[in-house]
Amino acid sequence: MDDPIEVLITLAFTDEQMKQISAVSPRLSVDKIIAHNPEEINEDVWKRVEVLYTNRVLPKPEQAPRLRWIQFHWSGLDHALSEPILNREGMSITSMSGASATQMAEHAVMMMLALGHHLPDVFAYQKKSEWPSGRWDLFSPRELLGRTVGIVGYGSIGRQIARILQDFGATILATKRDVLHPEDTGYTLEGMGDPAGDLVNRLYPPQALCSMLKVCDFVVVTLPRTTATRGLLGAKELAVLKPEAFLVDISRGEIVDHNALIQLLKERKIAGAALDVFPVEPLPADSPLWKLPNVILTPHIAGFSPHYDSRATELFTQNLQRYLEDLPLYNRLDLTLEY
Q: First vs last Cα of the chain: how many Å apart?
């Protein structure tokens, strides 16, 4: 009989979710220890663990000699890249990319509709209890039908945005690191996303970002935060946007240059923005963004869903099965690319 595989989960999964994970194979010995730092876990436990499912709780390499695979609970892993355990030879590291794609895509499309249909202005008049005159000029929308939407980063979230927008009649453009391989080899919920890469009208390499931006009516940023993406949308890139363009950012802070963006918004050189992520979080109370009338701010909530843990459990169980069968794991981290 094959040796048992010790699996440690450091998050508060439900009993039902734990049963679902254990049911993958009788070889699995699954333990749950809710922890916020590695010191809360006994040294003897660390010595036995082969598979770790965690948020941020990581052992030192010498603490976990048998550890072979770390499955993170979130998609963004930039917070963990400097951890020594990730660089151990033979270590597999996987993210939760795809588990939050549906809710984040819905958030992005909601923001495009809200901006295009002038909801900030609608709510401002509502707050004043005022029925405005000149309603046609004030509220004629920029519909998605016939518009061009540019997605900066065609990963799981960008692909789900493209799927939703099919029924709106928009033209979809996107940037992708490797445009010669439009397919998605990461995890995708059944019936979701764009696994074959055929829902996008045109793909651009990152070097052609400005060429894409200048023809877009809506731009959605969905990139991971890496050394290469920090500051990717700076003053030069933002300056090529149309005056009537809207920007939606659901990626990570520091990818969009907020100083340059604020200046463009103040001068009405772009029509507006919806921002869910910021260089400093919480967003400081003295940020000019709070008072700009053409901006919608949300406090980093695009990925929230009451179904997240269930979707995460499903991805983890599929990856466990692949691990047992010695198949490539979904969403493996490439330390060179940082995602």
A: 36
What amino acid is encoded at 157 in this protein?
A: I
Q: What is the dihedral of CA 173, 176, 181, 187, to 10 degrees?
A: -100
Please pick, among 300, 322, 332, 338, the residue that the annotation labels catalytic: 300
Task: Looking at the structure, tell me whether residues 34 and 155 fall in a common domain.
Answer: no
To the query of whether residue 181 is one of the catalytic residues in this protein, the response is no
Are residue 109 and residue 91 in the same domain, yes or no?
Answer: no
- pTM beyond 0.90: the answer is yes
Q: Are residues 47 and 125 in the same domain?
A: no
Give the tens place of pLDDT for each residue, 253-281. Answer: 999 999 999 999 999 999 999 999 999 99
Query: Alpha carbon of 64 to those of 3, 35, 270: distances in Å?
Result: 17, 16, 52
Annotation says 252 is catalytic: yes
The residue annotated as part of the active site, out of 73, 107, 225, 252, is: 252
Annotated catalytic residue 118: no
